[in-house]
């Protein structure tokens, strides 16, 4: 299915279904479709990476997603194994095209991301090593089942995931599926599980935004809620009620397959971008499934209904022909438009041109004539493959060897009669292909280095019996599509019998390693339990050490018996407004809905599609006249109702996602209502400033909800002033209460739920009473010491209890600290001079308007239709990125380093004819190349130069400040030298509880720390973080909110290497750098939590 076209269509059709990931629900299961991660991390934005860098990127990505989602029960990772033959045809075309487009033999060959290659075998071993290390060292990884299905296990990654869920699901389990494939949406719907979300990176961003796709810290993520999509589909087919929603969803998955999937070519004229899905849904409504029968039942096709659907679609096909004919003809006549003879000549032309099939014109007097004998095999194969796809999606693999043996689909006109004779009672579940059979089936000769040496001559030798399988040149056909990657690749399908006959005589020439790589493997589960070995050997001893005393055992995983699978929605599953906390539902507020052109802006521009527009019920329907006085103009809130709202400890704002907020006042057009310290309701009439604020806030709120989410409502009558929930606050004795943000915001009562329901009962955020000391601090539990002196921030273990409320602790050995004055000295040495934009213009001898464009972004469209950004992007783009080491925001004005001036000079010297023309180009808007370039060669030359320069730049958040590589190197040298001296262990008794920090309380207690560049910090996360507990490092950079001065992200270089560490874009040694949230660290230079009272005794 078209990616990202389908995701965009779905998001604009149903704007409420997805949101930027800002709050994460609690999930039982996390499932990674790994191939998207592998592609992102192996060749991000065309950069060349070493294999070790690629693997470390992948480990870091896995670790990041795990820490973000925190699955409670299962963490399942799946890499694509050998695919079904039906998928191999699509893979073959894609890989041949990729090889043809590869710019040089030295560039990364993405075709190595295919089961059976040495790269995939090493990666699988690397991921196993990574899992063993994480389970051995990270307590968070010891909680859920960790299951890994590598490249040697047959099956596509997303289908492995769904097969696991299908066999092991129970009611009301919460699943998060990570993946870039739109098939995951369809597979997720087919599970009939309301508590399913899809996690994916942001797909649509301005062309000038360059994000390192291999580093998740710099990605924005979308959470796509299937609970909301299910509600949207119920609205979509409202006219068919009453119906079984689960059967409607099954049919929706089916009709989407007709628009595009990886196993069948698209039916002519049905394309996502041309309203193909809309056409199918309209046709589906006309066949009235609830009364006349649904299209299929768990993959078993209802041919009568499918034939009805095709007959309705045939009218669309005729209309498409008529539109094309009328558009092409200079003169139109009604006789031409209604000419059935002409239509069938058009159909005959399609078959002849596309497939060289002769098509005798059928009896056009019949409304739905039978297709000619020449196309019946095509129609039969198409309908049989539809059945194969449905069973694959709904019940699992029906046959490994089945495939559709044609490049094109039949016309709809030939699928209107006799479909039942194409039916298949069942498929033979044969064996998957061997990995090397798949490699030989899908790889082109240009990628022959990826297959065993013994087989390579079969791809290139003139006398090879299968040389025709590997053409150097081949044709492609856009077939009505627009993008090159959508084109049909016209190469012959593999004859598997010929292939096997060719490779069989060469089997004895395979090495032992190659023979092992050609075997099919098993899924493994990783158990947190000491194995019988003292060491887990490193698969990459050159850059990763072996694991000493691993506390993890790898065992074959045995899935449940398929006979126990229950299809459809499980009994006891919550739905509607009873979904579990964090899973939004459209049923939590009364509303009406309709589909219309609303021009929503989900991505970068207004949508031209019809969208689901939700109109929230007016307040007069939700609240009777005793709550709001509708007789006044404008309406005002009754005091009793205002007081009842303010009596609530919490309300839930921003429907449908329902964020927890604490109300402190109610606003209406007259004034601000609040309860004073004595519990008396007070009303302060709006002054002029408050009236202006009321107008601007209400307008902004309603406009945003309408434009982004297609939520409409009456003009706000009442706004609630409230503090948003921020975190949990831990009190002495272990009690927990909710902590709300210090600033209050206004929220529309129309989109607010006042009564607490199931959505407010997230166990992570429930207030707790005091616990006994031994329960709060069990023996052997790890803490961080907050007492005064040199041991502040050191890791410690609870060893006993003193009389009363004292604790006995053992402070662990740790390196002595480098004096902060020494660190500060290195930082001061970096003090770099910054120049204003006017200074840059003067030093470069250029006009200021030219410099503005050179350091910014200038979007240009070439004659070929491609886009070039002629700016260097040293200053922020629309997403707030800047080039590190080149620019800085100083009191609202941009300033630049000497390196930036040198780069501008180099640009103007390299392209002296182009640079002066920039003064007349738009900074915000599209420019056209015919006003700039003399030829396409010149355009390609400057684009290539800019791309190379862009790869050299490190794009960071606008608010990021950090050390350069020289300063980091100096600090590391002195720290590494000083760290040879260690202090401890120390036994301390009668320690006050306030002088230790429980690890699980860190996210609540440490979220308001201050950090400065160079501060020494300690990692206090004992699980859920790549760095081991208690390891120290120093702050090399930070993202600091320009207005609030709050630190939102801390970049740290740690004293010890760790497996998912990076080199911070070559600014520090490998495996030492990472970005962490502030609460994961304790600042031990600026000791903001130091307790100075002393009752303890050291031994």
UniProtKB/TrEMBL annotation:
Ion transport among keywords: no
Gene3D superfamilies named in the record: 1.25.40.1050, 2.170.260.40, 2.30.30.750, 3.40.50.12390
Domain Exoribonuclease Xrn1 D2/D3: 772-981
GO cellular component terms listed in the entry, alphabetical order: nucleus
Gene designation: exo2_2
GO terms of molecular function: 5'-3' RNA exonuclease activity; RNA binding
Domain Xrn1 helical: 243-336, 377-531
Sequence ranges assigned to domain 5'-3' exoribonuclease 1 SH3-like in this UniProt record: 1009-1083
Domain 5'-3' exoribonuclease 1 D1: 568-767
Similarity comment text for this entry: Belongs to the 5'-3' exonuclease family.
The protein, known as: Exonuclease II Exo2
Keyword annotations from UniProtKB, A to Z: Exonuclease, Hydrolase, Nuclease
Alphabetical GO biological process terms: nuclear-transcribed mRNA catabolic process; rRNA catabolic process
All residue ranges annotated as the Xrn1 N-terminal domain in the record: 1-202
């Amino acid at each position: 299915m078209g990616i990202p076209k389908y995701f965009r269509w779905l998001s604009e059709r149903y704007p409420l279904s997805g949101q930027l990931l800002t709050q994460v629900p609690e999930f039982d299961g996390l499932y990674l479709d790994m191939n998207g991660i592998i592609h992102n991390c192996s060749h991000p934005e065309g950069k060349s990476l070493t294999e070790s860098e690629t693997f470390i990127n992948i480990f870091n990505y896995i670790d990041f997603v795990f820490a973000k989602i925190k699955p409670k029960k299962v963490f399942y990772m799946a890499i694509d194994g050998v695919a079904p033959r039906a998928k191999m045809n699509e893979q073959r075309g894609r890989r041949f095209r990729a090889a043809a487009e590869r710019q040089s033999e030295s560039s990364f060959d993405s075709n190595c991301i295919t089961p059976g290659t040495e790269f995939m075998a090493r990666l699988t071993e690397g991921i196993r090593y990574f899992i063993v290390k994480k389970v051995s060292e990270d307590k968070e990884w010891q909680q859920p089942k960790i299951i890994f299905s590598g490249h040697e296990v047959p099956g596509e990654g997303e289908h492995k995931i769904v097969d696991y869920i299908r066999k092991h699901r129970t009611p009301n389990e919460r699943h998060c599926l990570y993946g870039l494939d739109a098939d995951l949406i369809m597979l997720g719907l087919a599970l009939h599980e309301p508590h399913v979300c899809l996690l994916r990176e942001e797909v649509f961003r301005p062309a000038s935004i360059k994000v390192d796709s291999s580093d998740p810290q710099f990605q924005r993520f979308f959470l796509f809620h299937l609970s909301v999509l299910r509600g949207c589909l119920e609205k979509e087919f409202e006219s068919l009620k009453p119906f079984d929603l689960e059967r409607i969803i099954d049919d929706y998955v089916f009709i989407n397959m007709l628009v595009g999937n990886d196993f069948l070519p698209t039916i002519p004229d049905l394309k996502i971008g041309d309203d193909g899905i809309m056409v199918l849904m309209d046709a589906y409504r006309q066949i009235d499934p609830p009364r006349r029968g649904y299209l299929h039942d768990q993959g078993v096709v209802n041919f009568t209904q499918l034939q009805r659907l095709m007959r309705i679609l045939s009218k669309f096909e005729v209309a498409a022909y008529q539109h094309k004919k009328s558009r092409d003809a200079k003169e139109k006549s009604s006789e031409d438009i209604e000419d059935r003879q002409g239509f069938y000549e058009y159909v005959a032309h399609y078959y002849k041109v596309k497939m060289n099939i002769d098509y005798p014109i059928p009896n056009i007097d019949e409304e739905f004539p039978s297709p000619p004998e020449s196309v019946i095999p095509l129609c039969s194969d198409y309908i049989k493959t539809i059945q194969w796809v449905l069973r694959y999606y709904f019940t699992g693999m029906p046959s490994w060897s089945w495939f559709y043996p044609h490049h094109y689909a039949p016309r709809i006109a030939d699928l209107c009669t006799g479909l039942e004779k194409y039916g298949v009672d069942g498929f033979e579940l044969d064996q998957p292909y061997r990995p090397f059979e798949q490699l030989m089936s899908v790889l082109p000769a240009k990628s022959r280095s990826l297959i065993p040496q013994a087989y390579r001559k079969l791809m290139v030798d003139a006398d090879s019996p299968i040389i025709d399988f590997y053409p150097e040149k081949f044709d492609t056909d856009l077939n009505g599509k627009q993008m090159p990657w959508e084109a049909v690749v016209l190469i012959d399908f593999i004859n598997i019998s010929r292939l096997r006959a060719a490779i069989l005589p060469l089997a004895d020439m395979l090495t032992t390693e190659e023979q092992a790589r050609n075997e099919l493997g098993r899924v493994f589960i990783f158990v947190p339990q000491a194995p019988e070995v003292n060491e887990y050997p490193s698969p990459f001893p050159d850059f990763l050490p072996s694991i000493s005393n691993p506390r993890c055992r790898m065992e074959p995983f045995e899935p449940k018996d398929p006979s126990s699978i229950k299809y459809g929605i499980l009994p006891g599953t919550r739905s509607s407004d009873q979904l579990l906390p964090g899973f939004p539902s459209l049923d939590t507020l009364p509303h009406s809905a309709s589909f219309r052109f609303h021009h929503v802006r989900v991505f970068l521009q207004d949508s031209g599609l019809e969208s689901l527009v939700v109109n929230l019920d007016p307040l007069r329907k939700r609240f009777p006249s005793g709550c709001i006085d509708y007789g006044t103009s404008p309406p005002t809130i009754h005091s009793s109702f205002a007081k009842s709202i303010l009596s609530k400890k919490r309300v839930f704002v921003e429907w449908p996602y329902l964020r927890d907020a604490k109300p402190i006042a109610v606003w209406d057009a007259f004034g601000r209502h609040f309860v004073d310290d004595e519990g008396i309701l007070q009303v302060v009439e709006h002054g002029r400033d408050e009236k202006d604020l009321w107008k601007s806030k209400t307008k902004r709120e309603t406009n945003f909800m309408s434009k982004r989410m297609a939520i409409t409502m009456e003009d706000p009558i009442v706004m609630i002033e409230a503090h948003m929930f921020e975190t949990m606050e831990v009190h002495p004795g272990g009690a927990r209460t909710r902590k709300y943000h210090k600033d209050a915001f206004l929220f529309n009562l129309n989109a607010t739920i006042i009564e607490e329901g199931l959505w407010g009962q997230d166990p992570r955020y429930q207030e707790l009473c005091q616990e006994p000391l031994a329960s709060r601090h069990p023996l052997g539990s790890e803490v961080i010491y907050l007492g005064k002196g040199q041991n502040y921030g050191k890791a410690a273990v609870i060893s006993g209890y003193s009389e009363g409320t004292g604790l006995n602790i053992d402070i662990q050995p740790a390196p002595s600290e480098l004096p902060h004055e020494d660190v500060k000295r290195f930082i001061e040495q970096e003090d770099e001079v910054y120049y204003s934009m006017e200074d840059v213009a003067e030093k470069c001898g250029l006009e200021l308007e030219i410099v503005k464009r050179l350091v910014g972004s200038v979007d240009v469209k070439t004659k070929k239709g491609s886009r070039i950004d002629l700016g260097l992007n040293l200053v922020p783009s629309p997403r707030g990125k800047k080039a590190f080491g080149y620019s800085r925001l100083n009191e609202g004005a941009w300033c630049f380093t000497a390196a930036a001036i040198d780069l501008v000079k180099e640009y103007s010297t390299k392209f002296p004819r182009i640079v002066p023309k920039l003064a007349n180009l738009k900074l915000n808007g599209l420019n056209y190349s015919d006003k700039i370039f003399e030829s396409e060669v010149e355009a390609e030359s400057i684009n290539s130069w800019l791309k190379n320069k862009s790869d050299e730049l490190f794009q960071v958040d606008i608010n990021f400040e950090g050390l350069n590589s020289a300063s980091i190197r100096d600090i590391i040298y002195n720290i590494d030298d000083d760290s040879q001296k260690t202090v401890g262990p120390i036994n301390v008794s009668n320690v006050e509880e306030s002088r230790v920090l429980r690890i699980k309380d860190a996210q609540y207690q440490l979220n308001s720390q201050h950090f400065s560049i160079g501060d020494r910090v300690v990692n206090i996360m004992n699980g859920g973080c790549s760095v081991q507990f208690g390891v120290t490092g120093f702050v090399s950079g930070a993202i600091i909110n320009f207005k609030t001065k709050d630190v939102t992200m801390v970049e740290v270089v740690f004293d010890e290497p760790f497996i998912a560490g990076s080199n911070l874009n070559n600014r520090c040694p490998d495996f030492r750098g990472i970005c962490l949230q502030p609460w994961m660290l304790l600042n031990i230079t600026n000791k903001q939590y130091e307790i100075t009272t002393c009752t303890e005794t050291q031994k």
